[in-house]
Amino acid sequence: MEKISQLVARLFLGQIFLLSGILKISGYEGTQGYMHAMGVPGMLLPLVILLEIGGGLAIIAGWQTKLVSIALAAFTVVAAVIFHNNLSDQMQMIMFMKNVAITGGFILLAIHGAGGYSLDSRRSKS
């Protein structure tokens, strides 16, 4: 049961980033404009998309989980501070706290690893 729980947890964390990265591709210009409006260079969007899609897939597969978790945790905190910093707005506060909670999940993954049903586990056995 523990291995399945770890896989489900990785699926829940990874899918947020995978879907977000895919949606950024379909709404590229709008996302770039939003980034620019928030003071972030729009030319960084391809890197954001790569991190979200690649990181999401890596977390789901359990590949390089500790390293990817640290990268996504840092990205998520930075995104919270830049994009959800108006804490007097209830929706922005909720979005900020969502990012904090996701970061907590990544910290747990970074400390404990991906679990049994993962590419990391298969690699360590060989």
Describe the structure.
With 126 residues, the protein is mostly helical. The chain has one domain (2-125). It is built from 6 helices and no strands. The longest helix is centred in the N-terminal third of the chain and has 25 residues, at 2-26.
Ordered list of secondary-structure elements with their pairings:
Layout: H1 2-26, H2 28-37, H3 45-61, H4 65-83, H5 90-112, H6 119-125
Helix pairs in contact: 1-3, 3-4, 4-5
- Count of spatially separate domains: 1
Query: Could you spell the SSE succession in H and E letters?
Result: HHHHHH
Q: Give average pLDDT, whole number.
A: 97
Which structural class do you get from the secondary structure elements?
Answer: mainly alpha
Proportion of strand residues: under 5%
Summarize the structure.
The protein has one domain (2-125).
Search tags:
126 residues
